[in-house]
Design goal:
single chain, alpha/beta, globular
């Protein structure tokens, strides 16, 4: 029996040795992120440990992380000089994953020794290959250093970007593969309590990214959220199809009579470009990988518009004043709706732990699909967006697609991409303790505080947080080609007009950069509300922004305001006024896109003579004398004035102001101003500069 026992043990040891010899050895080389600094138990939670579990028994994964290590050999702690590196080389790995560079952002390192970066990286790799010539080397784009880092604004931000570019170029020009650890973590600052080291969830994301790069397994065929039955491709543009699948897989698409093929790259991504589609003809689209096939039906080509902003854009048709009229004939297959609704609303409540966690994980919008307009879908869609699309469809006689992702109460800064915001020396300050930052409107901060009251997480996120809605509501659209944007927002930024004058153009530029072209951006001027004393100044600021933002237009709606309700119900006229801008500015229709917009003023003979754009047929809306014009002299004291239409100008006088220097109009929070043009479109609030 004892002989049999010892023989069995010998066989077991032999099997273990053979298995170890057959296993693939993976060396995880890096700094404190690789080591697992900040984790409760790095031996169980670090990314190399989690990677080993994902890879399974065929792989042996070892952690050679060294906290504080630099890639630069003249840095303050060169990894090349550490015992961890000697151990990694002696390990003779089959695969080496190098995650270095974060500590090179230290002011002791990068400013002085950056010219050595490429040579030092080559030294590291060559040292490994001297003992392991067949070792496959992967270099990593660094995980993020978030804005909370003590040196973020004093140099780390810029040096991090420079090092990241060096890593990208190094991988492209040398025989190594690149693993991107920045992109999957960049939008998750909540995973980095000290701005540098991830919590276990962050380490898990790193492990998954490395696992996919090593195995080519990206979870199979995945498509953008906008792909589905009833979808609309932007007409007169090539159809660009894209998605993710496992690395090296062949992707086949069939769209009508067109066919296309592609092979996914090492990152699992694929793109196929087809010719533009004939407008109005329904198509089917099939997309197939070796292990999955999907089929989408009733696809058309037409005009695609993104409709966004806050609650006045989100307000539904069934909340509008024209619901009954609309529901007499809601069916219209020529209008397609993609209604992105939040899974968690920012109502005046405290969210539970499940909601708080979903917010942090950016699982904010409820999955949805394209629908045609009918009695079920129209009442639940944005009223402004629907009436905008209805006028376009009726005028253009082509399919119109409307994507709505508006979120009630959202401030403009929530819709800006993180890189743009953090690169701006002023805007980056909005991120710091934004819930206590008085540059963020008090109502916004108070509502966020109420929603997050039950959270114990100091880094708890919220939809109103800077960048959050861009990351959850814009990036997932995958730059799906659009004709343009309509926007109704501003109520949550009216407290600081000067800041909004920079924020709003930044929103526009951020989105245009995301799509890669300059689409038109048409927006709604705030209407009227008796208790919002800053609104006249804000409305005038919005008017002046027309000169700052190219391909823009502004729908004036001060005549549609409600003295007591921030949500006026007449949304049909708002949508149709936005459509007038699109018809004239985007589609070339010969019509007035706006009411009178202030152009200039001359002061002579004791009067102000005000000229306007879009001034054809100036008149009063109600046939009465013009109201709400005011004059001021050099002292700046405004008094009510008499206004008379003379051709396409308005003459403004007051016996109290003998030598006027300033003129303004509709300068009340809620106004009964009545100057319009021949089409009955109202003049904008203005004050001469």
């Amino acid at each position: 029996m004892r002989k049999h026992f010892f023989f069995s043990c010998f066989l077991l040891l032999l099997i273990v040795k053979v298995s170890a010899a057959d296993s693939i050895k993976v060396a995880c080389i890096g700094n404190s992120v690789t080591f697992g600094t900040g984790l409760m138990d790095p031996s169980k939670e670090s990314y190399p440990v989690q990677l080993g579990k994902l890879l399974g028994g065929k792989y042996q994964v070892r952690n050679f992380g060294k906290p504080g290590a630099t890639l630069l050999r003249k840095g303050h702690r060169p990894y090349a000089n550490q015992i961890e590196f000697r151990d990694a080389v002696r390990y003779m790995p089959d695969i080496a994953i190098i995650e270095l560079g974060l500590n090179d952002t230290d002011p002791r390192n990068w400013p002085y020794f950056q010219d050595n970066f490429v040579a030092d990286y080559l030294y590291l790799i060559q040292t490994i290959r001297n003992l392991s010539p067949k070792c496959k080397i992967y270099v990593c784009r660094m995980p993020p250093i978030t804005f909370r880092h003590a040196r973020f604004k004093s140099g780390t931000r810029e040096w991090y970007e420079q090092i990241q570019q060096c890593i990208d170029q190094f991988a492209a020009t040398h025989d190594v593969e690149l693993i991107d650890l920045q992109t999957p973590l960049y939008n998750r600052p909540d995973l980095f309590p000290d701005a540098l080291h991830p919590i276990p969830e962050g380490a898990s994301i790193i492990a998954s990214s490395v696992y996919s790069a090593l195995t080519g397994n990206y979870g199979g065929l995945q498509l953008p959220i906008l792909y589905g039955d009833n979808m609309v491709f932007q007409r007169n543009r090539p159809v660009v199809l894209k998605g993710i699948a496992n690395a090296g897989q062949k992707i086949s698409v069939v769209l009508g009579s067109q066919k296309g093929e592609a092979v996914t790259g090492k990152d699992g991504r694929w793109t196929i470009t087809l010719d533009s589609l004939k407008t109005g003809t329904p198509y089917s689209l099939s997309i197939a990988s070796p292990d999955k096939k999907v089929l989408f039906r009733n696809i058309v080509s037409g005009e695609v518009w993104l409709c966004s902003g806050q609650s006045n854009m989100a307000l539904r048709v069934n909340q509008s004043a024209t619901l009954k009229e609309t529901m007499k004939q809601p069916e219209d297959p020529n209008i397609r709706l993609f209604n992105m609704q939040p899974d968690i609303f920012t109502d005046a409540i405290s969210w539970d732990s499940v909601a708080l966690q979903r917010i942090n994980q950016q699982k904010y919008y409820t999955p949805t699909k394209w629908t045609e307009c009918n009695a079920e879908t129209v009442p639940l869609f944005s009223a402004v967006a629907y009436y905008f699309g209805k006028r376009l469809a009726d005028s253009l006689k082509v399919p119109v697609a409307l994507i709505c992702n508006a979120i009630g109460g959202s401030p403009a800064e929530a819709w800006i991409d993180r890189h743009t915001l953090e690169a701006d020396p002023e805007f980056v300050d909005l991120e710091y303790k934004w819930g206590e930052n008085d540059r963020v409107q008090s109502w916004v901060r108070e509502r966020a505080g109420q929603n997050s009251m039950l959270s114990n997480n100091k880094l708890q996120r919220h939809p109103y947080e800077p960048c959050y809605l861009f990351e959850t509501g814009i990036q997932p659209l995958e730059s799906f080609p659009i004709a343009g944007v309509i926007w109704y927002q501003g109520e949550s930024n009216e407290h600081n007009v000067e800041l909004h004058e920079r924020l709003f153009p930044t929103v526009v530029n951020s989105w245009r950069k995301q799509w890669g072209y300059e689409f038109p951006f048409y927006y709604v001027q705030l209407s009227g509300l008796a208790t919002r004393y800053s609104w006249p100044l804000f409305r005038d600021s919005q008017r002046r922004l027309l000169k700052t933002i190219s391909k823009s237009g502004m729908a004036v709606c001060s005549d549609l305001g409600n003295e007591e309700d921030v949500h006026p119900r007449d949304k049909k006229q708002v949508g149709e006024r936005l459509a007038a801008w699109a018809l004239q500015g985007t589609y070339g229709y010969n019509l007035l896109p706006s009411g009178p917009l202030y152009k200039g003023v001359t002061f002579r003979e004791g009067a102000a003579f005000v000229s306007f754009d879009y001034a054809d047929g100036l008149r009063s809306a109600d046939g009465k004398e013009l109201r709400t014009f005011e004059l001021a002299g050099a002292d700046g004291l405004f008094v009510p004035a008499t206004a008379t239409i003379i051709g396409e100008e308005v003459k403004v006088t007051s016996p109290s102001v003998k030598d006027p220097k300033q003129v303004r109009y509709a300068w009340q929070p809620y106004t009964n101003a009545n100057l319009v043009n021949k089409d009955g479109l109202p003049a904008s609030t203005f004050r001469n500069e």
